[in-house]
Amino acid sequence: MEFYDGSIKEVSSVEKEKLTKFMKENSNGALATQGENSPRVSIMASLAVSTIDEIYMITDLDSEKIKNIERNSSVEISYFNAENAVIVSGKIEVVEDPNKKYEIYESWFEFYWDKEAFKNNAVVLKFTTGGVRYYSE
Predict the structure, then answer these.
(1) How far out from the chain centre does Cα 55 lie?
(2) Going by C-beta distance under 8 Å and a sequence separation of 6 or more, which residues neighbour residue 131?
(3) 95 and 54 in contact (C-beta within 8 Å)?
(4) Threshold 0.85, pTM exceeds
């Protein structure tokens, strides 16, 4: 079993490529924010994962996670399957560029937002990785 727990800066480019591939293949991550009184975990689809260093997601402006992020921008995202897990920690922020959500748009968004609601309520979150833990069989 392989295990690592440390700074993303110490991870080799080859290992980063492997971890990024795993995250793309297991794209639903568990985003952990700090709620008012306790941690809060939300299942989030990761979008536009070009590298493990930077991950984009989309959520509703009125969601509880936005309130939590405004309180504390330090979060963790876990990706896992039966044999492996990648847990990244870092900072998350709301992207102010309104065009970014159209750059990462996917058709399944229509399940959550009609066109007007998407325009007004959908916001992009940008996560920047600082640390990483991973386990593999």
Answers:
(1) 5
(2) 5, 6, 7, 8, 88, 89, 90
(3) no
(4) yes
Residue 72 contacts residue 37 (beta carbons within 8 Å): no
Contact 57, 44 (CB under 8 A): yes
pLDDT in tens, 51-110: 899 999 889 999 999 999 999 999 999 999 989 999 999 999 999 888 888 888 888 888
| Full set of structural domains in the chain with CATH | 2-136 (2.30.110.10)
